Fold this protein.
Amino acid sequence: MQTKNDNKFINSIKTYFSKPQNIILFVFGILLTFTTLAPIVAIVEDTIKIHPGTLDAYLSGEVSGYSVVNYIDIFTSKYSWVNLWHPLLNTTVLAVFSCLVAIVYGGGFAFLVTRTNMRFKQYLSSIFIFPYIMPQWTLSVVWKNLFDSSAVCGTSDGLLASIFGITMPLWWCKGLFPSIIVLGLHYSAFAYILIGGIFQNMDPNLEEAAKILDTPKWKIATKITLPMVKPAILSTILLVFGSAVGSYPVPHYLGLTTLSTKYISMNAKYTGEASILAIIMMLFGVAIMILNQMSLTDRRNYTTVTGKAGQKSLFDLGKTAKYAIAWGFIIITFFTSIFPIALFALETFLPNPGDYSFLYTGDFRNLTTKWWFTTDPGTDSSMYGQKGIIFNKTIWQAFFGTLWVSICCALLAGTIGMLVGYAVAKNRRSKWAGYVNSMAFLPYLMPSIAVGAAIFVLFSNETMNLFNTYTILIIAGTIKYIPFASKSALNSMLQLSNEIEESAIILDIPWKKRLWNIIIPIQKSTIVNGYMLPFMTCLRELSLFLLLCTQGFIMATTLDYFDEMGLYAFSSAINLILIVTILVFNTVVNKITGASLDSGIGARDNA
Amino acid sequence: MKITDRKVFAAFFVIIVSLFVTTGCSEQKPKKSRVDDIIKEAQTMTLDQLAKKAIEESKGKEFFGLGNSSRGKDAIPKFIKYLQKIDPSYNLSFEWQQPKNNKIYDQLIADAAKEKGTFAMTLIQDGTQFKPKMLATGFLKRFVPLEWAKAKNITNLDEYNGYVPLLMISKVFEYNCRGDMAYTNCWDFVYKGVRPLFMYAATETVGMNFLYMLTSKKYSDILKKAYDKLPPEKQGYFEPIITSMEKEVDELKKEITDKDVLHNNENAKYALAWIKLWMDQYNGQTDDGPICNILINESAKNKCGLLVYSKLRSVVESDKVSLNNLKVAAYEDDYIGIGGYGYCHYLFVTDNSPLPWTACALISYLTTQQDGFEAWGKDMGCYSSNPLIDAENEKIHKHKNGGYKDKDKNKPLLYAVKNDKGKDWWENPEQGCLVLEDPEYCTKVAFTIGRWIDLLAK
């Protein structure tokens, strides 16, 4: 009897592991549990740990051990409004509205590109993703350079005030409003990539059928189109909301107090309370994730890619509108994409940061090329002993280091994410699959700085000292960026009808071949995005790597180093180099695979 | 709960507990360490003797330093050259890291958890933090170089309770003089409608120590004196605010048991009033660099700020930007009251330093050799803690004549603001009147007066 039971058990294990998706879930389930939970445990522990020299030590009268004073103080003291509720309120409003801006603007644009006959799609599609390519704070700096004024902001005049004498109100220049717009614009590219991919892959037969039945356009949109793209919208909300809650540079530059800015400002004196804020930021994300999870286990199925041919037809915007809307976007994207880059390029020729004397006087002697071409800094104190950008070894070493880290992170995170996405989609009703999916996604919701600190503690000790090595950066980057690929892969795999793979299984085609010859080609654009998003993000990542390596090791820390020194020409040049690198890689990937961040959305089909 | 759910829950619990154990906090360090013994011996040795020990210890190795100043990167190659004079075959690869946003403390604390650390030494700021976080825990150790102690007339190290600062940095009140406003009293910076530019406390916590120090008796008295010299209409504006602070002072006194804080300070209300107005009105910026760029622009008429003086060194003249758009408040003859804020960067050896002899030699080199201080000394606004080096540095760089053409007093004066009047002048309460950071006082008030200020924070 015992042997019979044992055989049954062994057989059930064999059957379980005969399916590749189960092996993937098993292996990554264990691996991701440790890589994800370790930083979380470190943060949770930090909330109850007594830190010498901080408030918890003062209130508890101890210098070590554990206490709940941080929780009592942050939730019940007279400081709770300043330290918790006010930043929490600002964060909520910022996250909700920047999500809204991103979804409406990015999703709307995705619809126009994929489902209408709007003109100049190819150009617009390429240019639209620029704000996401650039580091978050760049648009904030542009906003300040444009709208600040001596009269309203108490600073020097920005471009608008200097050239046209226009002064914008304070609410426009600082605080919540500009933070919402800037973050919304930054993530709209993200929404465009995610939602656009789904729009592009959608079988239009349902819409066609509704059209034939004379269903009004609004009804088609709300009853057919929107429900079909719902998973993508939810994923976008999840990713944008999670990022917006933890965004530090935008509110910091634009003078808004949020949980993330408070996390940084409290970290010195109120270390444990700052970690509570980090937990709250994570809880925000977890709440959204649960909502997303609920939609995943929903009985309704959102399969849109069936393998059956669908003739794509585009909504006709009308003769005037197809040009007018396109021109509207050309103007907007000029300010969100080209203007910031031009401003960065210009910054590398200005004698002082933000000194646009040549614009006002027309005298080009107020420009300089020294930031690029100086070979001997000599006694020029404004060069801070640095050679020009072209000849600066620090910059170029950091550049190649960054490329190495980004490529490794993209390949690892992209592959793991894709496999997890595939396996989860295959076992979508399984609790274990749901758990693995959550584990893969959780790092996204954790503040990068906190993840960096935890990884520093884990991988930089007596037995394994990985500090200041590319290995530790690759480990950190991979853990943090798996969610990009897993979300992206899961979305597309959920749309993929099982019939396609099942027919291959019937023909006894091995799993590897099914993956390479069927699944990957069908979902090529989304899968490429799963590699490109980690690559792009990794190129400009700072918070995550801040504690793990020295300045000059990678571009982001080098940028930070020059920024701190006041060498804004150098930090602007690094920004430019990063943007150009991403564009070059996007083009190369496009040439090799035929897919890229935006081409998968179909801009080139009807340019 | 189903059995399977219970199993999953139990497994999850085990994972959490095991992770807690692996990432758990480190135990408190023993008070005496190998580094303590080395420091004790090193404090009796000259720089040359230390240099030989350093060569022995670190030849061909890698050295990691961590500092609030990026210039450590420029100083270490000079140190290596110095050691190469003794042993031409000596070589050392090095990395100098300068974390922002107070991350230097996180990094040092995380590194302290290791038996053998990554960082050999540090150059750190913020008197409020380093004592309780770094010294009380034993993570950092003070090393007093022999020649530095002699220059400072410290004869008995056992009785010396201070630290070893490399330098003092000055943040001074400056204003754009293209408009019609003149700032002749430190209360003018918090007068109605004035929005002084200042770095967010979040960006640089050491800035908060300036406000803490104002509540000490010495600086409260100076604020009171300055208030007394205000014209009546300005006194009238400030008077109700100052009066309203009496209650706040009484409330704080109840919390503070230390009799040296507030209890003996009858002018504390002036300090609290000034702080309150400053916190309400200051125009937060991300760095001193942007503040400088704003103030030198001709469009920033009448704007003012408190910023690092040395930022002026890198300004390039153009049609709209000029150092002549700017005045240093304390340099004006009729100016009354505090002229700014002075704080130090302190040198320490890490308790788990992988290269303690090299760290001690480097600290000695930085504090006792002009070449060691050159990375900082070449610019205005940075003053060596060693009076001999400070004087030697001034001889070489002539910062006092920095505004004259070719730094020659007999040639035309180009930029008055670049004539740095020097450490002694700035520290003198009758002249530059910098508010000087005192780590002991800052530590005492951080969670009493400090929290009161935090309530006012933006």
Observations:
- The CA atoms of residues 9 and 371 of chain A lie 70 Å apart.
- Chain A has 29 helices and no strands.
